[in-house]
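pls design
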């Protein structure tokens, strides 16, 4: 065997070996890409409110998200992102005595690109962006 044949064989075997490894690496990741969904809260209210946000995975009712924040008039806050899965988002607006002022729920899916919560003295509104927005 000459040197060219040996080098060609080694190169071919290396390429085949790497192709097999790459194919195996792709399989665990198929279908599991979850884009995080940013959440932003804006207060258009004239007074201070507490906000409690929860999300539950649809089908299993497993809690996937929980966050509380105190909002002052005119404040905007960006919160920890939601997982990009099929879930129900629940926003509760509370007054100074932690009494419920308003409760709003909305479905969130992997197609949701962002969630904006708008507080007012009349209640809470949830806006979604993406293919599943209504």
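designed seq:
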């Amino acid at each position: 065997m000459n040197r060219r044949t040996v080098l060609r064989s080694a190169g071919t075997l290396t390429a085949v070996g790497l192709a097999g490894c790459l194919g195996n690496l792709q399989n665990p990741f198929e279908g599991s890409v979850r884009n995080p969904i940013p959440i932003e809260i804006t207060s258009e209210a004239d007074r201070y409110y507490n906000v409690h946000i929860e999300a539950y995975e649809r089908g299993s009712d497993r809690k996937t998200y929980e966050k509380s924040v105190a909002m002052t008039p005119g404040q905007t806050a960006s919160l920890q992102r939601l997982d990009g899965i099929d879930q129900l988002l629940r926003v509760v607006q509370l007054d100074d005595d932690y009494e419920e002022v308003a409760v709003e729920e909305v479905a969130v899916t992997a197609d949701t690109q962002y969630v904006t919560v708008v507080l007012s003295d009349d209640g809470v509104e949830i806006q979604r962006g993406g293919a599943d927005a209504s």
